[in-house]
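Module 6 notes. Inverse folding takes a fixed backbone as the condition and produces residue identities as the prediction. Think of it as a translation problem where the source language is geometry and the target language is the twenty amino acids. Below is one complete input and output pair. Work through it position by position during the lab.
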C-alpha cells in the first residue's frame, strides 16, 4: 500500500526524459527545415513577379487617375519606387508625397539574395546588350493613357541571384506599356 502511494505521488518527467525529447525534436527539425528553404531560382522568380505586378499597378494608376506615373530603379541600393504626379504639374520629383499618392507599392527593396543584373544570361531577344536596367535614366514613365513616355520608350529590368548566375529573370515593358516576364534557363536560354 505504501508502495502504490509512492508510485502515485511521482508524476511529471525527469530531466533525462526532457533532454531526450528535445534531442529527438532537434534531429527531426534538422532533417525537415532544409526542405522548406526557397531556392535561388524561386526567390528571383518571386521578385520578378512582384516587379512585374508593380509595373502593372503603376500603369493602371496612370490610367485611372489620368496623371503621369514614374517607376525609378535605384540599382546601387537594390530599390525601386513608384511615383504619381499628384499635383498635376507634369513633373515628378520623386518626393514622399508622390510615392504616397501612387497608393500602390511606394518604395520597394529587392529580397536579400536578389540584385539587379544578368548573371550568366545575355540580353533577351530584341534588347540591347547593355546594363541591368535598359530604360533611359533607369526609369520608366507612363502617361495618362498608360503609354510609355517619351513616346516609344521600351526597356528591360534584369534581376539575378547573388549566388546562382543562372537564376535570372527579365521584366520587359513595351512602348504600349505592356509588361512581359522572361525566365532564363541554363539549357534553352530565354523563355
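Target side of the pair, the amino acids:
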Amino acid at each position: 500500500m505504501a508502495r502504490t502511494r509512492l508510485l502515485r505521488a511521482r508524476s511529471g518527467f525527469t530531466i533525462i526524459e526532457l533532454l531526450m525529447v528535445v534531442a529527438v525534436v532537434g534531429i527531426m527539425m534538422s532533417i525537415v527545415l532544409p526542405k522548406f528553404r526557397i531556392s535561388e531560382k524561386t526567390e528571383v522568380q518571386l521578385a520578378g513577379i512582384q516587379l512585374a505586378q508593380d509595373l502593372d499597378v503603376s500603369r493602371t494608376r496612370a490610367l485611372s487617375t489620368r496623371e503621369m506615373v514614374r517607376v525609378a530603379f535605384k540599382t546601387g541600393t537594390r530599390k525601386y519606387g513608384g511615383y504619381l504626379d499628384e499635383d498635376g504639374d507634369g513633373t515628378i520629383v520623386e518626393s514622399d508625397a508622390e510615392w504616397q499618392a501612387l497608393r500602390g507599392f511606394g518604395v520597394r527593396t529587392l529580397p536579400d539574395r536578389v540584385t539587379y543584373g544578368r548573371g550568366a544570361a545575355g540580353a533577351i531577344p530584341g534588347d540591347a546588350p547593355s546594363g541591368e536596367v535598359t530604360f533611359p535614366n533607369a526609369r520608366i514613365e507612363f502617361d495618362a493613357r498608360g503609354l510609355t513616355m517619351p513616346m516609344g520608350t521600351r526597356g528591360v529590368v534584369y534581376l539575378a541571384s547573388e549566388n546562382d548566375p543562372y537564376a535570372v529573370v527579365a521584366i520587359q515593358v513595351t512602348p504600349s506599356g505592356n509588361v512581359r516576364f522572361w525566365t532564363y534557363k541554363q539549357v534553352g536560354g530565354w523563355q
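Reference fact for the lab report: The mean pLDDT is 88.
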